[in-house]
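Hi there. Long-time user, first ticket. I'm pasting a complex I've been working with (about 1025 residues overall). I'd like to know whether the download I got is complete or cut off, because the file seemed smaller than I expected. Thanks.
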Amino acid sequence: MRLWLRKALRDLSARRGQFAAVIATTFLGVALFGASFDAYRNLVDSYDALFQRTHFADLMVSGGDLQRYVTQARTTPGVADVVERNVVDSYARVGDHRFIVRMVGMPAGRQPAIDQVIVLRGGYLDPARTTGVLLDQHLAAYYHLGPGDSLQVRTPFGWTTLPVVGVAASSEYLWPARSRQDVLTLPQDFGVIYVPQAPLQLLSAGQGRQALATVAPGADRTAVVGELERLAHAAGATTVMTRADQPSNAALHEDIAGFGEMALMFPILFLGAAAFTAFVIISRLVHSQRSLIGTLRANGVRRRAILLHHLSLGVVPAAVGGLLGAVAGEGLAIVISRLYTGALKIPMTVIHPHPWVALAGLLMALVAVAIAALAPALDAARVAPSEAMRGVRPAGGGGPGLLERLLPPLRRAPAVVKLVVRGATRNPGRSLTTVAGVVLALVLVMVSLGMLDTTKLLLQRQFHQVQRNDAAVYVSGAADGALQQQVAAIPGVRAVEPALQARAVIVAPGGSYDTALTAFRPDTTMHAFLRSGGGTLALPQDGVLLGSALRGTLHLAVGDAVTVELPDLHRSLHTKVAGFVDEPLGTFAYARLSLLAGQQPNQLLVRYASGADPTTVQRAIEDIGRVVAVIGTRNLMQAADQLMGLFYVIIGAMLVFGAALAFALIFSTMTVSISERRGELANLRAAGVRQRQIARIVTGENLTLVLLGIVPGLAIAYAVAAVFMDSFSSDMFRFDLHVAPLTWLVAVASVVLAALASQVPALRSVARMDLAATVRERGA
Amino acid sequence: MTDARPAPTLKPLGRIALRDVAKTYDGGAVPVRAVRGVSLELPAGAFVVVLGPSGSGKTTLLNLIGGIDSPSEGAVVVDGEDIGGYDERRLTEYRRGKVGFVFQFFNLVPTLTALENVALIAELTGAAGGARRMLEQVGLGDRLDHFPATLSGGEQQRVAVARALSKRPRLLLCDEPTGALDLDTGRSVLALLRRLNREEGLTTVVVTHNSAIAGMADHVVRMRSGELVSMDAVAHPVEAAEVSW
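Hi, the file is complete. Here it is re-exported in full:
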């Protein structure tokens, strides 16, 4: 048995480059799985701990007969707490900067029972200082504000100065999203402050009233929330938002859900590659050792021993790579978790060891590689003792190959050309594995590059094709013609249009959806309404255009009747679906201004002249008395980029790993392919054929196979990338796979380069081989 | 690949002389001295058989003459030049221009026909060609388009001989050319080698452990344990058909 083990070790050692590829790919697969899944678990745990600490609301309700709802909710079994508060949007000023501010009412002197904050600096709201406010950490960080500073907020009494008593973090605004549809907000454009509830209630004159509820520990959360939702709807509530739909939570959930998906998908690819590599190497090993195996069988060695021996050739490197990967994955998970919570300013980082994740990764690797090794191991176990006398079967038979049948002129080509052409397809098994290696490598590269392209295009499409305005101007009162003229007269402004934006609830028989409705002029040039499948839609005379996600979410079709409730405008529209728009970010509703007859526009959309300095023009617009804030779309694009930042880092890392894997994969198939032909190549060398001629022949054969793999590889890679991107799509982000022309070229070039580079070690070994020994070997 | 030109007459290689040649391999803890202190001269155009049991150093000797190995000590002088001092590039050129090899295992390219296998070497070494004629010469004129898998062992070895000759070598080195063949096939291959030697004046060295073959040689070199035991001229070489083992 010790000799058996020694043989296994020497077989591994003799092909150390190839088995190193199995170890490397297994390591990467298990490390990626451990790192991403553990980090994913840590992030989920961090959120859960924070939600628990801050008593994050399970349900938020507003509108309708709120008092009735609150009374009923408080007596509903399983409900822990119900609190009321006001949340009011206004405008704030810090120095020259103006932005939209959200004032969240909190009881002074004590934390609320629900949606508490974690005070990071300074103190909590003091009942003795009725104007003192807490700043959300994102706002404080952007404007470098802290306790002792102040900011001005627009109230019914004009601009009011509010002193800052502290800086706080909350579960509600971990990601400072303005609404579920407006998750891309920058701290310079939107900020949150926590203000004493009593004065806010007075200032808001009953506006922005909300009721928050939490479910008691141990109660059936789904059932209790369901009952509360029923009560809210019965009380005529206009907004019923579960924790899952809460904007910040939904945005972050999208982010870490994507993380969780990648935690599975990429390791599957990597472990698939490891299994494939093991399959290729062990298959070829068995092929080259058939006479030896036959001799062992002739000498009475049992099939089971041969089976286990060959299985061990896959399992041992997988175990080595898997163990190293499991350890590395645990370490990486801690780093990623801290980086993530740090980048998103999550005040609590929970890091738990998850040994089962490491164990699961290791087991997945072992199972994947063992399954891959099983076929060649069974093949080895079935070798008949009589094969001991046959020597090595030639790697492939004769006859014109597929290419010659397809291209008959090749039959008249010189022998060297035929050698290349037939060599590429002489052994269907070997050719297929090389082609499959190329396909897998392309998949890995294209998935990563495709994700980057798609994300880039998503942002380009949203901010250049769909939203064509450079800025949105928020005003106090109506955005009337006089104001429009004032803005249009500012140097650097090329076009101005009025628009009306309001929170909207789309109600259909299939359910309701909380979003925003924007109404434009019929001939608007500030927004393009892209139709699914290409082309644009015009704003309909009657009816609304809806984001295409609602087709499935609310089971709607063009022509269906819908109700658009506009809580802030205190009106409802009974209209029809005039069409669906295909937009990358968010799911919104659009209509003509005329549909909201009697309602004044509440913002202006502005496009700057080419060459105008956006900051200068923005400042000039802000100087107009009735303008309270100007939000530039360029900033929003930056916000989107920021949101995607971590995504880019992960994809970048995957791309590097993918390229390394592509190299390892092609390296193993190429080296196996070359090592099988050492006898032939040695004969050529003995006959005086120069090394570079042999290199050209081998390269020609390998490149023929690579090219054969590229065509199906690109198609398969595109399909896999599309599935990947689709898995990230939601009503908030729509990822339709887009692959830039350059990406196709880069993917092909990188695989060809990997193929060229990966044959270098094998060619060097051919150059260095002992001709005298090789030409004498029966199995050479 | 086809050819109508007459085969040029081969110019025999000049004298081959080995002077105090030794070859030591680094065999791990104990170096292996495969050849030690061998000095001999092979006449131009001769048919030489190198005899010896397994491990006697006969193949190493062949490899040293053929330039696929270099001596650790001594000189291998071919046509007045010591090829023992050649680097890999010059050795390649030497083999390319002057030497043809035939090995026990034919190592034909399985995806090429007999004709293509022979033509391949001519193409790659820039030789004059004559693949078809070579195959006709070795008696395979009717098997040109057959792939190795459909040829018998003897036929494959004939293709290997034709392949070695296709680049018009001046020295033909054969390592156990009948080792993988039955008696009749082996005889026919030997007859072929002898005929080519006589007709083309091709210096031919055949390495074998089969002492029966010695009778057909002009000169017999005997080796044992890496040392030259004897080198004798054969007064009346027999024909291949008379050889038996």
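A couple of notes from our side: Residues 1-10 of chain B have pLDDT under 50 and may be disordered. Helices of chain B lie at 58-66, 88-98, 114-125, 131-137, 153-165, 183-200.
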